[in-house]
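Supplementary Methods. Inverse-folding protocol.

Structures were first reduced to a discrete structure-token string of length 485. This string, shown here, constituted the complete conditioning input.
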């Protein structure tokens, strides 16, 4: 997730881990800093592996080591977890300094799937296809969520990271109120089959009015990374739209892929959101969709600001990451009255022009384990990775920290379903994972992301028409692509 306010960082409630706020962008606070955590000038213990991660992993270091040993790691090998910044950008910069300086430690680095590719493109992390035992490489390629694996590979197809946990947003809703309004989400399998945006708007409007609720649908549309990587990406993709045509073009080649943001499916997705915010009688909206179900406040909301109204009982529907399911599904909030389903769709995949679009899209989040190529302890690191890839270890992380297992099959397991609160929704999360959409991370994504957020926000806010905003964005992205090809 991205864009969490500093006020809420580090908050714990009913098992809500600080991990849930780790991917915040733009906040100034940090957890225990990584800087200075690497040993210099003294011999390294050959049996201690230093793993740069986050404060949640550091807090659970004892349980992590126990789980590794139970998964087959030799008892004389110990993993020391270094607590990183809660700001993903700060963590990225710290890793860049270490790797550019060719430091031997940390031996392993936990990298955001949103920017791991920048290190892979520069070959600053170890090529696992060439170095990791082949049975492990094949397991990642065959059994893990494919969208996660894509963000851990080079353009030539070599693997450079092992997904440790993915993050997939879903649509949360007040199942109790939806049922009272006459709908049958369980019988109609909303949890795994999702519903169309049209039906979504009708359900939201009806429940909102019946219960005299302040809001219908809350989501995130501030000008920040979360809009370009996630909310807009999902809305656009669910209509069959794309940044660069087929998803085969997500990671390049820069300057040689079509820029498709001005096409009709993208325009329709923007008109839909404008309808939700400004009402169906406003200009540039979609006919046949219920309007006025989202407040103009969404234009300044990120994850936590959009979650609060839902948690407090003032909204029907809420789009967010798994951390918020743990909060909203707690017994003292909604308990089993919390419904979860995949993001709704505008068109089905067989109606979409581009490969990878249409249907219930979910923006991909998550983190990968990568290896410092300068580490003198590679073989020991590989032993740690082997243990990390065992089902028992991944399920223990799910239980202790709330990190989702990176394999669809594990989310089907009895033990996963027994995890308090979030275990009730593993089927919904598995479907979201199977429909995950990575952001198009390349060397130019930081430039492109900012332009996207600005133009999309202008269109959502009715400061520009959908057509003019996307025409401007197409020109901006084309210029960036051509300059850097």
């Amino acid at each position: 997730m991205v864009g969490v306010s500093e006020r809420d960082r580090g908050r714990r409630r009913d098992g809500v881990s600080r991990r849930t706020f780790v991917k915040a962008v733009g906040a100034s606070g940090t957890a225990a800093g990584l800087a200075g955590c690497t040993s210099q000038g003294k011999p390294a213990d050959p049996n201690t592996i230093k793993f740069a991660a986050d404060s949640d992993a550091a807090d659970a270091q004892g349980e992590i080591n126990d789980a590794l040993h139970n998964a087959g790691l030799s008892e004389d090998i110990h993993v020391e977890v270094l607590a990183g910044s809660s700001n993903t950008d700060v963590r990225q910069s710290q890793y860049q300094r270490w790797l550019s300086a060719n430091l031997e430690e940390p031996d392993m680095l936990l990298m955001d799937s949103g920017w791991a590719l920048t290190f892979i493109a520069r070959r600053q992390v170890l090529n696992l296809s060439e170095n990791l035992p082949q049975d492990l490489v094949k397991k990642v390629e065959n059994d893990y969520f494919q969208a996660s694996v894509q963000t851990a590979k080079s353009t030539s197809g070599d693997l450079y990271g092992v997904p440790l946990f993915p993050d997939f947003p879903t649509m949360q809703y007040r199942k109790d109120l939806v049922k009272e309004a006459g709908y049958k989400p369980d019988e109609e399998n909303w949890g795994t089959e999702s519903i169309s945006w049209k039906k979504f708007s009708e359900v939201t409007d009806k429940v909102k009015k019946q219960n005299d609720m302040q809001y219908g649908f809350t989501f995130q549309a501030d000008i920040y990374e979360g809009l370009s990587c996630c909310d807009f990406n999902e809305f656009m993709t669910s209509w069959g739209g794309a940044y660069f045509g087929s998803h085969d073009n997500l990671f390049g080649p820069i300057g040689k892929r079509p820029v498709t943001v001005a096409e009709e499916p993208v325009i329709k997705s923007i008109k839909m959101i404008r309808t939700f915010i400004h009402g169906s009688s406003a200009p540039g909206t979609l006919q046949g969709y219920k309007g006025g179900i989202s407040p103009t406040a969404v234009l300044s909301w990120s994850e936590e600001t959009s979650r609060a109204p839902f948690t407090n009982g003032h909204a029907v529907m809420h789009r967010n990451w798994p951390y918020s399911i743990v909060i909203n599904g707690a017994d003292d909030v909604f308990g089993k009255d919390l419904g979860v389903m995949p993001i709704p769709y505008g068109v089905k995949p067989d109606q979409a022009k581009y490969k990878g679009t249409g249907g219930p899209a979910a923006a991909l989040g998550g983190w990968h384990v990568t290896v410092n190529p300068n580490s003198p302890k590679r073989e020991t690191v590989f032993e740690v990775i082997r243990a990390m890839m065992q089902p028992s270890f991944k399920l223990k992380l799910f239980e202790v920290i709330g990190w989702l297992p990176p394999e669809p099959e594990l989310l089907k397991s009895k033990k996963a379903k027994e995890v308090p609160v979030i275990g009730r929704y593993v089927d919904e999360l598995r479907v979201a994972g199977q429909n995950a959409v990575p952001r198009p991370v390349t060397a130019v994504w930081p430039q492109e992301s900012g332009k996207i957020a600005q133009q999309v926000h202008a269109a959502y806010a009715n400061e520009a028409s959908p057509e003019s905003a996307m025409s401007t964005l197409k020109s901006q992205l084309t210029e960036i692509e051509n300059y850097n090809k």
